[in-house]
Write the structure tokens for this entry.
Amino acid sequence: MPQDQQAPKRAVIYARTSQDSEDAGLKVSIEEQLEACRNICKSQGYQIIGEFYDRNRSGRTYPTGSSFINQDPIFEQYFQEHIQSAKCRSRDGLGEIFKRLDQVDVIVVRDETRLMRPLLNSFLETLVWQTLATHNIIVHSVSEGIISPSNHEQQMISRLKANTKDKDVLTRIRDCKASLDRRRNSGDLYYSPFMYGFCSADHQQVKPIEHELKIVRRIFDMYLAGTPIWSIARVLNTEAVKTKTGRGYWSSQSIRAILSWIAHSDHQINSYGDALYSCIRECEKPADGPRSPPLFSNLMCATKIKTERRRSQLRSR
């Protein structure tokens, strides 16, 4: 073949999303990653011979089939502390690429962290780069350009960038969690106000919806009168009582959620797992008068006692 008519490089595209916090605030969907990689292949004249992805898999995990999975103590510790699920222990998509390395010239990814986010002193980084260098395969990152596994200086720069990005993500996660905990511990609303019986109000509060609260009280009354949860749902569906969205049907799960939602007693759970008085409900009261009483405090206490009694009976059988 003439020099100016060389065969196009054979490329495989790889995409990954993570189920843990390593992609917090930076997550790009599998479909978006694949599309960006296809555009790079088109602009570079690469021949796409395969597309592979791993959904909800940590970049710190090994490709499926690697013998290092059970020989890396750093990864094993991380797995036991953060992953635990056996099905998430390795990456099938990356494993399929590693089976085809003899047919590949370039691996295209959105950024290098899609390929891996190695732990400090883990074998993963060495395994990936040495394997790709052995097969003369380059990595083409949409955001970082071409990365050569045999170029150690380039690898070092890439590693420093990845570590910096990891630290930025961890700092962002830590700051968000601290802010959330402060709101929880002060009694402010820290979750979506989309709940049956209430709607959003100003200043991190919710306000009652009277006709929905009547249904909530009725649910408590039926449950405390001995009506099973599934039967409560059936009664509401038979009477065509609308759910919060106005679509779908009442289920045992939705009834159970209403019975167990602690905000019905004007309390919520703080970051330490304790119940504290909450100020999320917007109430009208005199400037110097007492706050209006909790909505269903007594009913919730009775419901909790009955639920615990029922659980004890089931455990003793």
